[in-house]
Design goal:
Elements: H1 3-13, H2 18-28, H3 42-59, H4 63-68, H5 70-78, H6 85-105, H7 112-119, E1 127-128, E2 144-148, E3 153-157, E4 165-169, E5 177-187, E6 190-202, E7 211-215, E8 226-231, E9 234-237, E10 247-249, E11 255-257, H8 262-269, H9 273-301, E12 303-306, E13 309-313, H10 318-346, H11 354-381, H12 393-405, H13 410-424, H14 446-469, H15 477-510, H16 514-534, H17 536-541, H18 547-564, H19 568-573, H20 579-582, H21 591-599
Parallel strand pairs: 1-5, 2-5
Antiparallel strand pairs: 2-3, 3-9, 4-8, 5-6, 7-8, 10-11, 12-13
Helix pairs in contact: 2-5, 3-6, 5-6, 5-9, 6-9, 9-10, 9-11, 9-12, 10-11, 10-15, 10-16, 10-18, 11-12, 11-13, 11-15, 13-15, 14-15, 14-16, 15-16, 16-18
The structure holds flavin-adenine dinucleotide (FAD).
Length: about 625
């Protein structure tokens, strides 16, 4: 192992912030409370996640300080899910979605007691936006908060079953909860749109008067208390309205919304969703890296049969290499793309330009989808060991199912982004896209592969714009969008891939050590070539690749795997993970001994394994 190259890779993966933002969070997770526990009921597992969240809270600076430093918030999203996927969900909802909303829109002296209550984690804060009938269409939510001037209170009410709050954490009534509830503010007979309210849900013994909750049905792995919550004319003091710069009460006690339309105010009220998407991606790539780390360490130890011998590490097979090195290339690509999106977000603290919004949405969708695939591959390549919770990867699979849907369902998020990019129209002076000439180009040449991806992105965008603008047929807007959206989705996806490859090649150039530079260069080629193979038919039809090159793709991928293999160990060492942190027996230096210890099976450990020659 080369510690200098390891440090170089870690610097690139953690954007030079490992020591300052990540290290202590990882160390905190060595606490025995995070040791794997078995035989818990789902409720017990959920309660344990609350206990573990309190340990994380007690071991770090206060949430209010974490919110001041987005890098720290993103790091907090990345680590706890490695040892308990439910703890991640609780922490992110509390720190970012709820408390972030309170700090951003409720920073007033009159709310200090409630802010402190959440900052101290005396109460957890569920975030109640989604309703049973309003998920991806949450902007049309129906929970209402009607202002009663006489008592200076809002009356919070759930008008019907579809308006019940859905999926937020209200199922455990013995945990004190002070929620951020999104509701339609109605005053003086007018609907002013959606605003956040601070609403006491439970005092730790029972639900507050007028608040009703029922747990959602069980889901695999995560024993958390996602629930259905409804309000029956609950009185909420006027001060609990988190209006921020979205309006306020004038001296006569009349509510005045800020200028701008309801849509703009809605996006402002839901402002924490944007960093939330970066948190979701952070957790996804963290889980992806850990999966690849575990699977590759196991693959180097797991002996199998081969012609003439019975002790070949399974990683020596090209089929295993192709699966796991491709997964490795994807976790690098998505980590580097995410770092880029985080940097852009941190650089634009006040206003989020449309381009940044698109980048964050594409990063969230692409990274969570890619990590879903990576995790499924790693699970499968670990055989039966891959299905045990203690070996982590199966649990990460469950985490990813939630991440793909929460904080903007990937499909809808990407379609919305695509629609906005298409509607932007061609920028003045934008050159028509030219296909790169494939003649004589090396399939490992990332400059060529990048040009090919860029061409596909631009061609899809051109086709999508032409489809929307097509006036040869009588169509409604919905018809036009339906004819276009799948092209738009493909365009938005390839934009993410192209950006990721740009970040990847830059990282390879920025590497300060030769082993890191070489390894990253090879991995970037593997990432890009895998993408080209995915749409090889399109590239062939457009003459971007020759027929010979397309035929050569499988061999080129295999050949890259051969070159990457000597670098695999160093590439995963840059993740700064350890068997001690993950506690997965198959990631241990001696997986057989670790598995024996874990299961309490004291069979013939230490006995010589005889192999046929
Ligand atoms: C683990 C988990 C935790 C959650 N925690 C919270 C929480 O704490 N607080 C909270 O408020 N919410 C929470 N949610 C809810 C989450 O925000 C919603 O699930 C999400 O917004 C999607 O809404 P939905 O589930 O109603 O999906 P639906 O809107 O019912 O979508 C169903 C399907 O239809 C497709 N679809 C929907 N609309 C369109 C469209 N316009 N165009 C094309 N396709 C479309 C979607 O892609 C999806 O495949 C959580 C969700 C999960 C999974």
């Amino acid at each position: 192992m080369n510690p200098v190259a390891t440090a170089d890779l870690a610097r690139l993966l953690f954007d030079g912030r490992y020591e300052q933002a990540h290290k202590d969070i990882g160390e905190l997770l060595l606490d025995p409370i995070f040791d794997p526990r078995e035989g818990l009921t789902m409720n017990e597992a959920g309660k344990l996640a609350y206990e573990r969240s309190r340990v994380v809270h007690a071991g770090l600076e206060r949430p209010v300080e974490i919110l001041r430093d987005p890098w720290r918030l993103f790091a907090l999203a990345e680590w706890p899910s490695l040892v308990d996927v439910s703890t991640f969900s609780l922490l992110m909802v509390h720190y970012n979605l709820s408390f972030g909303t309170v700090v951003e829109h409720g920073d007033r002296p009159e709310l200090k007691d409630l802010v402190d209550e959440l900052d101290r984690l005396d109460s957890f804060s569920p975030y109640m936006a989604t309703e049973l009938g309003y998920g991806n269409n949450v902007a049309a939510m129906r929970t209402e908060a009607v202002y009663d001037a006489a008592s200076e209170t809002f009356v919070l009410n759930t008008p019907d079953a579809l308006a019940q709050k859905h999926m937020s954490y209200s199922g455990f009534q013995d945990v004190p909860k002070l929620a951020v509830v999104m509701a339609r503010l109605k005053a003086d007979g007018k609907d002013h749109g959606v605003y956040p309210f601070l609403v006491p849900i439970s005092d730790g013994t029972r639900l507050h008067e007028g608040v009703h909750a029922a747990p959602c049905p069980e889901k695999p792995v995560q024993g958390l208390d996602n629930g259905v919550t409804w309000f029956d004319h609950v009185r909420v003091p006027r001060r609990n309205l988190l209006h921020g710069d979205m309006g306020g009460f004038d001296e006569n006690g009349t509510f005045r919304p800020s200028s701008g339309n309801q849509r703009k105010r809605f996006l402002r009220a839901m402002s924490r969703i944007l960093p939330g998407r970066l948190c979701v991606s952070s957790s996804a790539v963290g889980a992806g890296r850990a999966s690849v780390y575990i699977a590759l360490r196991f693959a180097a130890q797991r002996l199998t049969n081969a012609p003439g011998r019975n002790d070949l590490p399974v990683i020596e097979y090209r089929s295993h290499q192709l699966a796991l090195f491709t997964a490795l290339s994807k976790v690098y690509a998505m980590t580097l793309l995410l770092n880029h999106a985080k940097r852009e977000f941190v650089a634009a603290p006040d206003a989020v330009p449309a381009e940044l919004n698109h980048l964050i949405s594409i990063t969230k969708a692409l990274s969570t989808w890619e990590m879903t695939e990576v995790i499924a591959t790693c699970r499968e390549r670990c055989g039966a060991q891959g299905i045990f919770s203690v070996n982590r990867i199966a649990d990460y699979g469950s985490l990813l199912q939630g991440l793909v849907t929460a904080e903007g369902d990937n499909q809808v998020l990407l379609a919305t982004t695509a629609g906005q990019i298409i509607a932007q129209g061609q920028a003045e002076g934008e050159a028509p896209s030219e296909a790169p000439d494939p003649t004589g180009r090396d399939l490992r040449d990332t400059a060529f592969l990048l040009a090919a991806l860029r061409h596909r992105e631009q061609e899809l965008l051109r086709a999508a714009r032409a489809s929307m603008a097509d006036e040869t047929r009588e169509r409604t807007y919905l018809d036009a969008w339906n004819d276009t959206m799948n092209t738009g989705l493909a365009m938005a996806r390839v934009r993410g891939v192209r950006t990721a490859l740009e970040c990847f090649t830059e990282a390879a150039e920025e590497a300060e050590t030769e082993p890191a530079r070489t390894a990253l260069g090879l991995l970037a080629s593997l990432y890009a070539l895998t993408e080209v193979q995915r749409d090889a038919g399109w590239y062939l039809a457009r003459g971007v690749f020759t027929a010979d090159q397309v035929e050569e793709l499988p061999q080129a991928l295999d050949a890259l795997c051969v070159l990457i293999q000597p670098h695999a160990e160093i590439l995963i060492s840059g993740f700064n993970l350890s068997p001690e942190l993950l506690r997965a027996p198959i990631a241990a230096d001696d997986y057989v001994a670790a598995f024996q210890r874990r299961t309490g099976a004291f069979g013939p450990a230490g006995a010589q394994i005889t192999t046929e020659s």
